[in-house]
Amino acid sequence: MVLSTGTNKIKTAVFISGTGSNLKSLIKFSKLKKSPISINLIITNNKLAKGLKYGAIFKIKNKIINFKNKEIAEKKIFNELKKNKIELICLAGFMKILSKNFIKNFKGKILNIHPSLLPKYKGLNTHKKAIENKDKYSGCTVHFVNAKLDSGKIILQKRVNIYKKDTPDSLAERILAQEHKLFPKAILKIFSL
Ligand code: GRF
Fold first, then answer.
1. 50 pLDDT higher than 80
2. Which of 179, 181, 182 is the best mutation target for the ligand 1 pocket, counting ligand atoms within 8 Å of the beta carbon and taking the most?
3. pLDDT of residue 191
4. Which domains does the chain have, with CATH numbers?
5. Is 143 assigned a catalytic role?
6. DSSP string, the chain
């Protein structure tokens, strides 16, 4: 593995709410020479988010933001992003919906990973919906974030088969493994255009 210093890379903030396995894969990716991004900031609405631990291992700065008042929360985030000269935002299991105004300020600079083949199954419980609908496959999507939930321009998708014995959990596990590859691939795609 070739490690890079990350000095000339696109300064990126990752927003998480929970486990942070996508954050982990993005951190790993960011350390590769071929990666156009460095991860300089982690934002979370959940002080118990496990993902904060991965960030700490790599000494990545984090900011825990209380979302009781969304307007105040977003102002704080905005200031942090500016202070850290952040140029790209990756939403990786971030369970809060950002306001139109916030998104406007970072137009074309926010990416999200979603556990379905959009436009199918926007929002929550995607795996349960796919199984209940007896779909033969589902998957994951990396897309740009716009003002409409899970509706921005699609960058990349990966299809994952659904088997008869699948439960939402078993399907989630297989899709998550693909998410870990898809997010870095999508970043490579948009920055090599
Ligand atoms: C992922 O399935 C992501 O697509 C969804 O939430 C999950 C987060 O997982 N939005 P993790 O926190 O990255 O492990």
1. yes
2. 179
3. 94
4. 1-106 (3.40.50.170), 113-193 (3.40.50.170)
5. no
6. --B---TTSEEEEEEESS--HHHHHHHHHHTBTT-SEEEEEEEES-TT-THHHHHHHTT-EEEE---SSHHHHHHHHHHHHHHTT--EEEESS--SPPPHHHHHHTTT-EEEEESS-TTSS-SS-HHHHHHHTT-SEEEEEEEE--SSTT-SPEEEEEEEE--TT--HHHHHHHHHHHHHHHHHHHHHHHHT-
